Amino acid sequence: MSRIAKNSIKIDNEINCNFNNGIFFAKGKLGEMQINIDPSFSVEILDNSITVIPKDDKSKTNPKWGTTRALVANMIKGVSEGFVKTLELNGTGYRASVSGTKLKLQLGFSHDIDFDIPKEVKIECPKQNIIKLSSFDKEKLGAAAAKIRSFRKPEPFKGKGIKYDNEYIVRKEGKKK
Question: Is residue 169 part of a domain?
Fold first, then answer.
């Protein structure tokens, strides 16, 4: 039985929520999202809290109960506060810059990499070696950050590459003579 799923989700007065025909809809100051809820669960919306409730006792042991509650909670947090991820570029000559709807990356290759920025994700570069991604959709934010990181993953010998700001690179010892 899930412990997380039993908890209710607190909401502000600024957020509008609806649940009908198996679709949960949330609208806040940053945007609006909707998600299909599994038919074995229903969402109960009270004045300032939301609870995911299983329709029968068999569904109380279903692992999707906690997952459904987490998805709804991420939607609520996304439309009210939003999510942020920061990437760091480590390496000589590694640079990033935003021009229009493209992120231009110089990562030591013979060519520059142009990454098309998704509509829901905002990217800014406060410094040449820092990329800040922000969005109300946690899934698309993580996918965009992972795609950017995949262009040059950090390598364990010198630590060069693109890494998350809270990521620790396990270093290896080099060749010995």
Answer: no
Buried b (16+ CB within 10 A) or exposed e, 16-35: ebebeeeebebebebeebee
Q: Residue 113 forms beta bridges with which residues?
A: 105
Predicted confidence (pLDDT) per residue in 78-91, tens digit = 999 999 999 999 99
- The answer to whether 6 touches 53, Cβ cutoff 8 Å, is no
List own/partner pairs for 145-151 with CB under 8 A and 24 or more apart: 145/85, 145/87, 147/115, 148/87, 148/103, 148/105, 148/115, 149/87, 151/105, 151/107, 151/113, 151/115
25: domain range? 9-80
15 in any annotated domain: yes
Considering the domain architecture, whether residues 13 and 66 belong to the same structural domain is answered as yes
32-42: per-residue pLDDT in tens? 999 999 888 98
